[in-house]
Amino acid sequence: LGNWLNDKGNIELQLEELEKKVNMFATEVRKLGKEELLGALSTEAMIMIYEKTVVPTITYNLECWTHIDEKNAERIEKIQGGILRKALNLPATTPYWGILKELGIWPLEKKILYQRMMLYESMIKSEAGRLGRKVIEAQKTTCLRNNWYKQTEREARKSRIDLEQAETRSTEAWKKMVKDKIQEKVEQQWDEKQNGKRKTRHQVGQKFERKNYLRKMGIKEASRTIIRRLEMLDIGNNFGKEKRCICGEKETTEHLIICENQKEKIQKEWIKETEDLNKIRLVNKFFERIVEKNE
Question: HSE-up of 122 (CA within 13 Å, CB side)?
């Protein structure tokens, strides 16, 4: 079925093959979304190409597995993080969940869950004599807990998805309900992971969706904006250094904006801006000049 299996019958061999291809995936995505050809549309194009071609390759058939253990689930997320950082030319330590929220991309665990829910709905609504449906119905009634249906039920429960509705709702209504429930869970997970973290503080209060500036900027400018919004510029203690502002105060993004010794002035609320390109560019230039002076 297109999956690599090792002698233990798990997906570790498949993940090893995917890990070897991280650079290749990133390179291909950048080539197809080339800024020289697509200009301001290149970032949106690159993200779309990634979602439509790379994600299905990484997650191919993974919804069919009974269970993916925590270790391998983490490896899958690292593969996605590696590709996105390289494709967008982001530092290796750029926070993964910050990137996902900025791009509006689900963690692959949730993409696999969505595919699993769609597979379940397809099988449970298929003809009564079909083998897949017969297997599911048998697994529903067995006392054994380690089968595909019971694991699917557990995964659905975590995201508050009622599997029984797959049999009564239309396919479109089922898809929408599953997407909405997974989106709610992703928002909740981000809040839990953020929990006061400094690098993602400018995203607090914003929706887990693709930010509008990404639809209007070329890749180079979009990458610089993501780096600045996720506190990956060499400012303050972002890289483990204790820097001081020219006024002697502790250097932070927020302090630099209000410091009277800074010749240029920007508004504090512009740090969170995701719509107005002029404000975003002014903020980017403000901090890039400070970084240049520090160097």
Answer: 9
Per-residue pLDDT of the chain in tens (295 residues, 90 and over written 9): 456 555 565 688 889 999 999 999 999 999 999 999 999 999 999 999 999 999 999 999 999 998 899 999 999 999 999 999 999 999 999 999 999 999 999 999 999 999 999 999 999 999 998 999 999 999 999 988 889 999 999 999 999 999 999 999 999 999 999 999 999 999 999 999 988 899 999 999 999 999 999 999 999 999 999 999 999 998 887 777 778 887 888 888 888 888 877 777 889 999 999 999 999 999 999 999 988 877 6
Which one-letter amino acid corresponds to residue 265? K
Q: Is 133 exposed, middle or buried (0-12, 13-18, 19+ CB in 10 A)?
A: middle
Contacts of 252 (CB under 8 A, 6+ apart): 235, 236
Q: Which two tokens stand for residue 234?
A: 């060499």
| Total number of residues shown for the chain | 295
Q: How does DSSP classify residue 203? A: G
The model's pTM:
0.92
Question: 3-class DSSP state for residue 241?
Answer: coil
Report residue 250: phi and psi, to 5°.
-60, 130
Residue 94: exposure state from Cβ atoms within 10 A (0-12, 13-18, ≥19): buried
User: Which DSSP letter does residue 40 get?
Assistant: G
**Residue 162 has which token pair?**
């009622």
Distance, CA of 271 to CA of 204 (rounded, Å): 12
Tokens standing for 211? 């930010």
